[in-house]
Amino acid sequence: ESQVKRCDAKIKEITGSKIKSVQKKRDDAQNQLDKIKKEITRLEVEIKTSKRDLKKCEDKIKSYEDEKKDFEENMTSMKQRRIEIEGICGKICDEKDGILADMEKLAEEMKGLKEEADNLTKGENELKSSRIEVDQKLEKYNERIKEYTNQIYVHKRDLKKLRLTTIPDEVPDKLKV
To answer: How much is the pTM?
Structure first.
């Protein structure tokens, strides 16, 4: 029994140090395994996150491509509209040039008409001033006629008072009027 105890103690001593080193290695391996499992889990989560991000990016790319296509269509229609507008503007500019030419002709005609109107106004003013002079002379003549008419009236009245009388011994002469 004592031999068994001794053997048992020796076995424990020999195996104890070996078991500790093996157990330590096993614990280290277990820790490493846990770390690797955690890393695998973390990487799997990152992969799933990356897949979601990839899906979002693909959706954004698709929407950007659709938007680009819409912009290109809009640009094409805008170019066509611009060409139409340029045509319309060209016509309007031609019409404007024609109108400006007509305006210049009308301005020249107006200038001639204004000069003619000025000349007519000048002639009219001269005629008015000569009419005023004539009216003034006419008024003077009318005043003189009135005076002479009054004098004639007075003289006629005076003449009515006069009578011819025959003077004895003289021969009547012919009357002078």
So the answer is: 0.39
In contact, 172 and 166? CB cutoff 8 Å: yes
Side-chain half-sphere exposure of 104, counting CA atoms within 13 A: 5
Locate 127 and state its tokens: 């005629």
Q: How many CB atoms lie within 10 A of CB 91?
A: 10
Characterise 164 by phi-psi region: left (phi > 0), alpha (psi -120 to 50), beta (else): beta
Distance of alpha carbon 124 from alpha carbon 117, whole angstroms: 10
Measured in whole angstroms, the distance separating CA 82 from the mean position of its chain's CA atoms is: 19
∠ CA 71-76-80, rounded to 5°? 145
Q: What token pair was written down for 77?
A: 């229609």
Q: Can you tell me the distance from the alpha carbon of 177 to that of 167, in angstroms, rounded to the nearest whole number?
A: 20
Token digits of residue 5: 């105890």
Q: How many residues does the chain have?
A: 177
Four-point Cα dihedral 95, 96, 100, 103, nearest 10: 70
Comparing CA positions, the residue from 60, 169, 22, 80 lying closest to residue 72 is: 80
Residue type, 136: Q
Half-sphere exposure of 168 (CA within 13 A, CB side): 0
> What pLDDT, in 10s, does the model give residues 80-112?
999 999 999 999 999 999 999 999 999 999 999
Tokens in use for 112?
């001639």
